[in-house]
């Protein structure tokens, strides 16, 4: 049974500007594991990864029904890419299954999170 659905659309350049203007932004948004994956990328791909994690966590909070920073924070959710590049939610406050999807264009990232129980 679907318990929540959240989608988000984020401008990659906006997240890049936030990271550039506020060095603590990376530590605020990314978990240690996510930061390790982020460090493996450069240029546009690094910005896509960072914007993707921001957007995925926003989508999760929307599916959770609270918005980010209220009942759930950025570090309460960890989303790592598996060997094939698929985003996998490895930590969250939700006890059921969490499905994640991310897609990029040159300037936008779109994400979706589905929260599911038996």
TrEMBL record:
GO cellular component: cytosol
Pfam families: ACPS
InterPro entries to which the protein is assigned, alphabetical: 4-PPantetheinyl_Trfase_dom, 4-PPantetheinyl_Trfase_dom_sf, ACPS, P-Pant_transferase_sf, Ppantetheine-prot_Trfase_dom
Keywords: Cytoplasm, Fatty acid biosynthesis, Fatty acid metabolism, Lipid biosynthesis, Lipid metabolism, Magnesium, Metal-binding, Transferase
Annotated GO biological process: fatty acid biosynthetic process; lysine biosynthetic process via aminoadipic acid
EC code: 2.7.8.7
GO MF annotation list: holo-[acyl-carrier-protein] synthase activity; magnesium ion binding
EC top class, as a word: transferase
Cofactor or coenzyme needed: Mg(2+)
Coiled coil: none
Residue span(s) of domain 4'-phosphopantetheinyl transferase: 4-102
Record family assignment: Belongs to the P-Pant transferase superfamily. Gsp/Sfp/HetI/AcpT family.
Designated name of the protein: Holo-(Acyl-carrier protein) synthase
Species name: Limosilactobacillus antri DSM 16041
Lineage: Bacteria, Bacillati, Bacillota, Bacilli, Lactobacillales
């Amino acid at each position: 049974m679907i318990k929540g659905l959240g989608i988000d659309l984020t401008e990659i350049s906006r997240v890049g500007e936030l990271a550039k203007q506020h060095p603590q932004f990376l530590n605020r948004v990314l978990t240690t594991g996510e930061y390790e994956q982020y460090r493996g990328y450069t240029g546009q791909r690094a910005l896509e990864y960072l914007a993707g994690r921001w957007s995925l966590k926003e989508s999760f909070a929307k599916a959770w029904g609270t918005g980010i920073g209220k009942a759930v924070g950025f570090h309460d959710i960890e989303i790592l890419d598996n060997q094939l590049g698929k985003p996998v939610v490895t930590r969250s406050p939700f006890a059921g299954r969490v499905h994640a999807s991310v897609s990029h264009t040159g300037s936008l990232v779109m994400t979706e999170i589905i929260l599911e129980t038996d």
